[in-house]
Amino acid sequence: MPHLRIDHPDKSTPYTHLNRDYLPKKMDIPHKRIGPKTFKAAKIGSHILRSANKVAVPVAVGIDSYNLYAAVTQDLQETGGIGKRTAVEGASTVGGWAGALGGGAVGAKAGTTIGCIFGKGKQFFVLLKFS
Predict the structure, then answer these.
(1) pTM of this prediction exceeds 0.70
(2) Which partner from 5, 51, 128, 129 sits 20 to 30 angstroms from 34, CA to CA?
(3) CA atoms of 102 and 46, how far apart (whole Å)
């Protein structure tokens, strides 16, 4: 999928820049120069998002685990076995995670593609990957 990658200076490009990966040919922006403040802000933003993700995923797993445990416990107390609450909570959990993963992947790729095609100048700055 098309995306832009923020890159450090290297031998062929001695300044901070955007690399275009898999973009349409008519979007000729090889090694688009970006300023040091933009680079630093993008690096800090990327670090914050990665750190938040390391906390958010385990918290979400813990909450879903507790909700499933509560549904099983309530079913066992009321019916003596696994019942409707457990099935509904299990399906809700699986559907929620599948929707989050699928929607996140599709949304990120589609948004990047649309922004790269229709964006102008600095508007299609996309934070996806650091080299």
Answers:
(1) no
(2) 51
(3) 21
